[in-house]
Amino acid sequence: MEGLPEKLVIALICAIGFCTAEGLAVPVAALLITLCISAVIMLIMQEHSRIAVILIAAGSAICLFYPVALCAVPLLLYDALRLKKWWLILPAVPAVLIPNSALGITQYLVIAVGIAAALLLYHRIGFLTGEVGHLKALRDSVTERNLHLTEQNEKMSQMQDAEIRLATMKERNRIAREIHDNVGHMLTRALLQAGALTVINRDEQMREPLLGLKETLDTAMTSMRESVHTLHDDSIDLKKVIEDSIAAVDSRFTVKLDYDISEHTPGSIRLCMAGVIKEGLSNAVKHSSGDRILMILREHPAFYQLVIEDNGKCSSPIKETGIGLKNMQDRVSGVGGQISFSPSENGFRIFASVPKEKL
C-alpha cells in the first residue's frame, strides 16, 4: 500500500506519546482506536474519500473530550494532508490550548515531533511521486519517439526498396532497348544477307553451310527476342500501370481499386493483367452508362484473380467477337487462364483467373 512505511513511522511516534501519558487503560484504548481509524482511512481513502474525511474530523473532535487523543494528531494530520484537507484537524486545536493534567511536556514534545515528521514525510512522498510521474512521462515520451522512429525507418526502407526496384526496372528497360535496337538490327541484317547468299549461291558445296548459318542466325534471333521480352515483362510496375490507367479514365467514373498481389508476380502475368485492365477500362468508358467501376486484383494460393465491373445497364447478350474482347481472351489464354464476360441489368462484369500451376 502506498504510504504505509511513512504511516508506520508516524504511528510509532504517536505510540510513544500514548505510552508516556498518565494511566494505562485510556491511553492504550485511545492508541488502538487511533490505529484502527488510520487503517480504515488508508483502505477507503481512494474509493470512499467522504467517509475518510468524516473519520478524520471525528478523530480530531474526540480530542476535545479526551485530551490524551491529541497524541494521535500527527497520524490524523498525515491522512488529512494526503486527502488535501489539512484543515480537518482544526477541531483538535482548542484541546491543545486548554490546560489539562492528562498530558505533560513530554507528550506535547512527542506531538510536535510527530507533526513535524508528518509534514516532512508528506512532502517527501509528494516529491517522490512527482519524480515518478516525471519519469513515467519521460518513459512514455521515449517510447513514443522510438515508435515514431521505427515507423519512419520502415517508411524510409520501403521508399529505398521502391527506388531500387524502379531503378532496376529502368535499367532492364534500357538493356532491352539496347539489345533490340543494336543486336536485333544486326541479326536481322545478317539474316537477310544469309538468305540472299543462299538464293544467289550456285555452288552446291556452299549450300549446306549457308543453310546452317541461316538456321543459327534464326535461333540467335529467337533467343534474343525471348530475352528482350523477359527483361521487358519483368520491368513492368503493375500497380503504377493500373494507377496511370485509372487516372486516365473519364472524370464521370469513380474507380475503386482492391489491389492485393505480390511484387514477385511473374512478368507474363503482370503484362497480361495490365493489358486486360487497360482494355476493360477503355470498354467501360466507351460503352457503359454507369458512373462507378470496381476493380479487384488478388493473388490466391493457387491462382491469380481479376475482376472489373461497372454499374451501367447491359441487358442484351454480348457477342464475344469484338476486337477488344478477343484481345483480352488471347492475353489470358496465352498464360493458361480463363476469362468470362457477364452482362446484366446491374452492369458489365469481366472475370479472369490464371492458375499458378500453368506458369
Give the quaternary arrangement of the chains.
single chain
Gyration radius, in Å = 46 Å
| Terminal-residue CA separation | 69 Å
Side-by-side strand order of the widest sheet? 1-2-3-5-4
Query: Major beta sheet, specifics?
Result: 5 strands, mixed
Total helical segments: 10
List the helices and strands and how they pair.
Elements: H1 4-19, H2 25-44, H3 49-65, H4 73-82, H5 93-97, H6 105-200, H7 204-234, H8 238-247, E1 254-260, H9 267-287, E2 292-299, E3 303-310, H10 323-334, E4 338-344, E5 347-355
Parallel strand pairs: 1-2
Antiparallel strand pairs: 2-3, 3-5, 4-5
Helix pairs in contact: 1-2, 1-4, 1-6, 2-3, 3-4, 4-6, 6-7, 7-9, 8-9, 9-10
What can you see in these coordinates?
The chain is an alpha+beta fold and 359 residues long. The protein folds into three domains: 4-129, no CATH class; 160-234; 238-358, Heat Shock Protein 90. It has ten helices and five strands. It has a five-stranded mixed β-sheet with strand order 1-2-3-5-4. Helix 3 runs antiparallel to helix 4 (73-82). The radius of gyration is 46 Å and the shape is rod-shaped.
